[in-house]
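Late entry, evening session. Most of the bench is empty. Finally got around to the prediction I had been postponing all week. Sequence below, unchanged from the version circulated by S.P.
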Amino acid sequence: MSAQALWSGKAVLEVTGGIGAARWNAQGVSIDTRTLKPDDLFVALKGEHHDGHGFINDAFAEGAVAALVDRSHHRANGGTGGDHIQVANPLQALANLAAHARARTSAKIVAVTGSVGKTGTKNALGHVLSSLTPKTHASALSHNNQWGVPLSLARLPADANFGIFEVGMNRAGEITPLSRLIAPDVALVTTVQPAHTEFFNSMEEIADAKAEIFNGLRQGGVAVLGCDDAWFGRLNNAAKRAGAKVITFGKSQNADIRLAGAEEGGESSRVEAEVEGVRVKYTLGVPGSHWIGNSLAVLACCHALGINAKDVAPAFASLQVPSGRGTRRKIGHKNGNILLIDESYNANPASMEAAIVTLGKHPVEASARRILALGDMFELGDDAKQWHLSLLPVIKDAGINLVFSCGEQMRHLFDALPSEMQGKHCSDAAVLAQTLEGVLRDGDAVMVKGSNGMGMKCIIKHIESKSVEGKE
């Protein structure tokens, strides 16, 4: 395999037990033709709603060098197009590539899970480690499930210095096989909060499911835990049962990486941390107390990797939030300038509360308003109504002026609001977008948030499409 290639055809055939030509080199691996890059290896996976075999021609049109395909499909379709590598099961073949990628690298590997903050913390860790070495690999977007984890590992370059992988779950037992595939040197649990509660009977069960991340730790591995978390004791016991060394972060005086002080601003924060007795000051380029906590988790992971916190702390100043998780943009509106905060990617009670509190700290002029556009939070089971209603005191305490909403569950919250805070409850996000755009005025700060399935992103796109040239 050439120094530049991620995978040679020969290696793929050997690792997957596939049948086909080996006269190609792949620079990447893809399971989605919409994001596929030239010289990628395309893996045709079959899911509940789509079968990747139906997109093989598209993959080759986009420049794929080869496609991993199910043998039965290859026989049925004659194997036309580019190089087809026939395998018994494309998903298992992808997992085999992932396991081989892990085995061939000497990179230090970090696995990140938790109810809230997985993607942001994973990206932040990747950002600060990249300031030390460009050979830092992190899983893209939120690729954290039974497809995303092996895909991310299969993309790990053999000469990487660091690899950071996100691990998610909806049900008990899902994290263990993914953690064992990753075989991390460091395993971080950001926090345990009510998320995906529909599939659990208690918070104890959720904590235990998150603790599965320790099951794949390599010998001598480190568990990184927030000692302020209500479930720290349970996680700590699970980590020790797995033979892990534990490093803690948080506000507690007993934390190994302790928050010594913070000054939050509208666009950034000034943070002072104490890393096992050594003071470290840094600017955090994103606002919000939850991001301060995330930065402590990042420092704890770096400490677990043997990295001096002072070497990576300056990189926090250039940190940016992932798309849809607090991205801020000033928009020139027909009635003046507004601040649009995009939290549309997803939502659960903890992330919703953190986002509302952060909006409440954003300064606005006397004539301007802090406005929420909220959609339902999914997978909260029988307690969904109460979790939505629990946001009421948070909204009041944050000094929110107006709330617009959509969704069956958000209706409960909207109806409970004082009349002066009620904007309008709409049938869906598309109607909410039209309604909200018509009431904006100069200086308003607007935050849009809801579970991904609510389609809240359309509100962001609609308001951005109404941007008036010369007013931004």
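Two things to note before I forget:
The CA atoms of residues 6 and 157 lie 6 Å apart.
The longest helix spans residues 289-304.
Will write this up properly tomorrow.
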